[in-house]
């Protein structure tokens, strides 16, 4: 068995997906801290907003690798989340810098619940992808 571009793509995807899992775990923990009043929303948003674009760009980069090597099933697993990321960033609140989370609206109960649910769903997709990359 030779080391080819597909194998390289899966190795890079495993490493990148590990980072994406950590981003998703940090997302869930951060919003849980907001829910239980352990953190200030301004500080929490200042720590979350710089991580949004790196997460999205890493996820898109990994799927560009799968597109280049013709791994269609791996790409199809992630296309719905990429579409959601693009939609979410396009419809973000008006802010002065990059990011998704506005400190003035992040504590609204519907936004907080939606963000926690989003974090758990992203974590599940990243975990499914990770195990598929290992065993698929």
From TrEMBL:
Cellular compartments annotated: Membrane
InterPro entries per record: Cornichon, Cornichon_conserved
Annotated SMART domains: Cornichon
Xref: Pfam families: Cornichon (PF03311)
Key words of the record: Membrane, Transmembrane, Transmembrane helix
Listed transmembrane segments: 7-31, 56-87, 119-135
Leader sequence segment: none
GO biological process, one term: vesicle-mediated transport
Membrane topology field: Multi-pass membrane protein
Predominant localisation class: membrane
GO cellular component: membrane
Superkingdom of this protein's organism: Eukaryota
Family assignment from sequence similarity: Belongs to the cornichon family.
Stated name of the protein: Protein cornichon
